[in-house]
Give the backbone structure.
Amino acid sequence: MPKAYLIHIIGIVQGVGFRPYVKILADQLGLSGYVKNLGGGEVEIYVEGERSREFLDSLLNGRPKAIYIEDIRVIEVAPRGVRGFTIEKSSQEVETVSMIPPDLAICDECLREVLEGDERRRRYPFNSCSFCGPRFSIIKKLPYDRENTSWTAFPLCDKCTREYNDPKVGGIRRFYYQGISCKNDGPQVKLLDSTGEPIDVGDPISEASRLINEGYIVAVKGVGGFHIFALASDDDVVAKLRKRKKRPTQPFAIMALDLETAGRLAVVNKTAAELLTSPQRPIVLLFKREDSPASPLVSPGLDKEGIFLPYTALQYLLLSEIRDKFAIATSGNIHGEPMCTDWRCVAKLGVADYILDHTLEIVHRVDDSVVRFTAGRPTLLRRGRGYAPVWIKTPLRLGRAAVAFGADLQTAGGVGIGDKAILTQYIGDLDSFKALEDLDRELRWLVQTYRLREFVLVCDLNQTYNSHRLCREWAEEFNAEIYMVQHHHAHALATAADVGVAEPFVAVAIDGVGLGEDGAAWGGEVLYVDGARYERVRHLAYVPMPGGDLAALRPARMALAYLFKYFGEDWDLVERLKLAERLPGGLSEAQIVAREVKKSRLYTSSVGRFLDAVAAALGVAWERTYEGEPAIRLEATAAGGRLIELEAEDQVELFGQLIELYLKGADVKDLAYTAQYKLGQILGKWACETAERKGVRHIVVGGGAAVNDYIIAGLESVCGRAALPSKTPPGDGGIALGQLYYLAHLGV
Amino acid sequence: MIKLSHGSGGVETAEIIEKLFLKRLPESLKKVAGGLGLDFPDDAAAIPMGDGRYLVVTIDAYTVNPPFFPGGDIGVLAASGSINDVLMLGGRPVAMLDSIIAEEGLPYETLDRVVKSFLSVLETEGVALIGGDFKVMPKGQLDKIVITTVGIGVAERVIVDRPRHGDKIVVSDFVGDHGAVILMLQMGDVDKPEQLKLKSDVKPLTKLMVPLVEKYGEYIHAARDPTRGGLAMVLNDWAKAGGGVIVVEEESLPVRPEVASYAGMLGIDPLYLASEGVAVLAIDPSVAEEVVKFVRGLGFQNARIVGEFREAKQHRGYVLLKTLAGGLRILEPPRGDIVPRIC
Ligand SMILES: [Fe+3]
Ligand SMILES: [Mg+2]
Ligand SMILES: [Zn+2]
Ligand SMILES: [Zn+2]
């Protein structure tokens, strides 16, 4: 008895050859039926025939990794007796949104062709197929057709044309693939000197590997921007790179040829291996091996290494000839500025000795995504290549389309239509004008691509944010309404949207700072959120924040503020803790801080500033050369530490007791551990009490500090499992999602 | 409720003035016909005199804690401030009126010293004191002394601050000295200014502006003394008024190292610190280099070009600082409140 299935799939990304894949699969199995695009990323398939079950099996378990399916529903139906399998035109012109394909790492098949395939594709640096290769980074407009992408500059050779037109020639991977190319017609790779002058060499990639092996620094054009490659095993080379990049301690990422190489550098478990080899291919932060061959200067003072695998043929070819099989691959940018997408920008940096350039134009800058594990769960620190701009389905629908401007540091914006939130790729820090321009450009691009009209705008409450300023510019230009959301309310809603909570919930919103309704710098908040309203149930005790943002830049200022708050103005303690020495201005700055504390104009409940204070007072870190540095180093210090039992009502008491123990000679590792774990317990206690009192079941965590292992462990030791976002970063890179979700709750 | 930040001269002040005055006044009452008034943010107002010239008028209240500081006192400040405002509109200062309010209990000697310095500035500048008022308020109702001055001058051509595409931004001297000195005194580092040999830059700029306007008047598209809110305030105002973008080279900014390091300790960008004897000019590019030479010849050795005004279609009103590393940082308009941004 022949079987038939009606299959409804949600979340299909365009441009990954889904429909051709379905057709070829059905044809192979001798099945009849159709596949139809319903719009909005939804597809309907009907199959009938003896081997329908096999079809279903292949679709569910054997499909290429590139084909992402959010949700699938299958019903068995009576066979209709149709003949042949067709790709049906959508019944009415599909006007609804389609998902913009993200960039995909090279697939196994394509890699095999590069390593051992026929002449046309062996060692071809741009080899890609329906299931892999650049997408978003090269797309100028929708639909995803060759003439709308950077590939349009490369007219097809006869062989590619045949592969493109005929599934029997091209097979499932090349039939109708918009980015099809080969050695005969594809982009060219060139080696340039540091000023951009071309160097004539036989094989530029081999030559680049050779130069890297000799200790030179080489900029390499990737998918969404330039990387700076350098030997990661050589202290001198790493030190040279740090000097040239003016980046004293911020960790560099390492690209490792394969899982085996990655395993020599760090501990790679099964989940990590899956992430590392996924089509998204993010940088994954993994615990370093003690005998790692990487230089300690790659990530000084940290227990984790950021590792990723190559995601283009070019990178594979390059790494396979690098003697270590791994190398630093850090983004090619000026500190705090967006990454370069053309060689001119790289030449200006003055970091690289050579530039490995190519001719496939980058339309959208897309940074590497970064994932870490928080209490065992993968969490996004940066959502870029491979993830953006895939939409996130929200539990509630927006009435009107909306544009969200996010926050200011490590930020992303987004647009919302119906129940889809489409976040831009990671944009960066908006005190850089170029980053602000990028945000503006990417938002305009999304507005145009999704044909938004009559949209509303939403931004952070903080008027000093450049994102807020940009939002006001848009309001004037488009005559659009502005809504504002308090920063931590947005963090709370972002996590709720990410994990699918639509009912009232309790949120623990913990981060560096966000402007509170009372003008203070919030950041350690327990909120009860009922959609568009929230109640600030509890927060960390207010502590002066001497010098405003300067207290964030100079953690010893926060240490002084905490010290004076708990012990009074005790200069003997200041001396014993060497706090004056940890300020650039020394004792006179400490005295200024003391005066500022006495008549403070700004108070903070920030978790970030608490961690800064602890890090500085314990001598773990008192400089901030990159965002979150003291907190990140404090977390690293806590590895292997144990909990010291102590009673503390709030974080000020906790700080005071830690200092007393420190002065009595307690182990810094244990103190660091206790600072974070106990803080988590304090917040956890407040959160559960609130949840119980309000009678809600969900406790969510959001904000940049929500990735801290020990805080989350402490919190969950009291509360049980709390929800963390998995599709978006819990930090400010996810704020735009919360802002859009706020509007959905508001009924806009 | 009125907060201190409303009087900071920054964003909050602009907002409250807008609400209290500008929104309520009909356009016709914001200026005398053919002149310049509240309709445009500038140093002073102008009234046409009928013969092609303008009467330039300005008013300012001066309160400074402490009243005496290295390099000057509130008397010098009150006289120089209004003289400079007249000059920055292209006027030649001719007369002044004053209103002094003293706090009950103020030592006679203090008042005597302040008035002496006030008058000595008028004398050297040849500005007549044509009227005044003197009052005393009960103890505790104000802080020692407040001096309000009205400056009056005559201008052949009014410099309305509207920079044009390509204009070079010229600064006549180091910026932020006055603000740094006052901050030091307020923070209680009394010995610091002497230690660092830092003093306020307060002075009238007649010797600079009168010859400059005479020779290059038509090429000066904007002129301002960067008092409250510092250079950052002036540049932000101009970027907005000109409908463009100002790009400033960080490298070229004249800030004394001691001012920079002290401001650094307080977390303040020196570009937000007040100067009381510095001119900022937007000069037509064809003569900008020449003007710098001319200004240096007038005794302002540290004068230099620091940046450029550019017309822009998007992001109008931004002031961008080109950093040493090659980045473009946004220099925001000053505010009175400290609002944290760094996460
Ligand atoms: Fe945040
Ligand atoms: Mg002027
Ligand atoms: Zn492939
Ligand atoms: Zn070809």
